[in-house]
Model the fold of this input.
Amino acid sequence: MCGIAGVWSVAPVAPEDLAVFTDLLEHRGPDGFGYLSADAGRLGFGHRRLAILDPDPRSHQPMQSPDGRFAIVFNGEIYNFLEVRDELRSRGHEFRTESDTEVIVHAYAEWGPECQNRFNGMWAFVIWDNVDRSLFFSRDRFGVKPLLILETPQGIAFASESKAFLALPWTRAAGVTGTPYALRGGMCARLSGPTDRPRIERWWRPLEHIRSESASYPEQIEKFRALFLDACRLRLRSDVPVATAISGGLDSSSVLAAVNALGAESVARRPGDWSRAFTAVAPGTEHDELEYARAACQAARVNPVVVDLFERCDPDEIDEYLYLTEGKPLTNLSAWYLYRTMRQHGVKVSMDGQGADEILAGYYYDAFRILQLEGSWLRRPARTLDLVRTTRALARDSPYVRLTRSKLLLLSTPTLRKVVGLVPGWRARLPQPMREARDAECWDMARTLPPLSAILFMAVNDEIQDLLQRYDLLSMSSGLEIRMPFLDWRLVSYALSLPAESLLGRGFTKRILRDAMIPYLPAKILRRKAKLQFQGPVRQLLQGPLRSWLDRYPDLSRQAPEVLATGSYARINDLGKRAILAWKTDTYPRLVQSRIAALQKRHRSDPATLRLRTQVM
Done:
């Protein structure tokens, strides 16, 4: 897990510029750094290392292949690297480190781009071919790890975070414009010259791994449980301390239970410190789930470290939070302080529950959508009644949604929906069963699947990438890696192969997960229907510890008392968003430029270290 950066320019890249570009990502990788120069100085790689596997300096990056043909910068983890390494050894490859980075280099040398299909992990990597004079970009199946690309007339650059591009002389030069874009999950790209357009293609073919499941429901539970436990087993591989971030909800509680259920002998390369749990709470608010977090920890025989958001939140740290996360909402402060506390306790890897909602229909609106797509009192009365009861139960226990009987009748009756849709102005009020797709190719694949599988297919292959980018910034701003067992591609493929009844029904979302975890979790968690978003209580934060920060912006400060006292959830969030927009305009450019100036001064004062840490191909 690291921060990566690189440039391929029409002119030689100044070593100092490459170093500043890379070191704007220093928070992502505090354990080591290195640079590489190739193509007569026109190509530069930079790397900031967070050492997880083989912390020895021999595994620093950029890393070259033994024959000097390939060089790589890599951010992420290949969880099955031991198995891939064994296969490569059987083919004659020799290894000098215990890292997964070296496995990628050898795998690419052996199989080329096809190596991507052999990896189980999260990654963004770029490989330079010193013979073909080309770059190869790759991003993991679902886009867990970021890879941003900037194209300009001066050349192409890539980085883990958008703020890094502000260090490039190109972006500081007058008249030079360009916006970084993300290489999407499951995509790879080739580049044959610094001013060429990358040739982007999809390497991940998810439909090839989705097959309609015909086994009985008890058999489905057993297979799902086995896949989930194995996903957790692989993600426990680490040479540094691992802990679990737990909210008290079903997903993170399941991860904690699985981690502690796995026997030590079943996990190769598991660290000695692996069983701790951390939870963030907001006492006296609807966001406080300590009661459920404690129940999950008690079942796993773990004493949690509790982070009180109101005690931890410091207005003097909000500039740092917004700078490092590139202006993420105040609702995410709970997660930021949780990850920061874990890092301060010596933890470098967090096991998290993200992704479960996307693959198991965990959101209340999934029930709304599938009720529209499958509900029919005439053709499927039993299933429609089950979905109506499930949807009503979810809405009743949710603080975010209200659902009337008339709306339930409308959602579950196709003929009535058609009639209402003909009334001017009413069609727009109907919930949309399918969201607009950003990825047309992904939507074309989803349309071949049953309704719920199509919804979840789009969620995990398209819609989830914004959430993943957010959590990458929230965790890596503290130099903490998060791992997500629910996004193991095998588990995702199996979940999307299941019939809708196995995921949504009998009054619950994520039905199969609840049944699979019966041996490990108490009924208090398994039978809970209320779903709280993993975010902070903005009203109480702006009324309390963050009020002095809000007072920086007089117009917003004058509106705050009325909005915070009587405003809706949406109005309060809007107040926070407008404050962050003002911060981005007023403070963000100054902080970035100050950081760039400090890094320039550092590298100008110590050119010897820069030369020493730069490899030349």
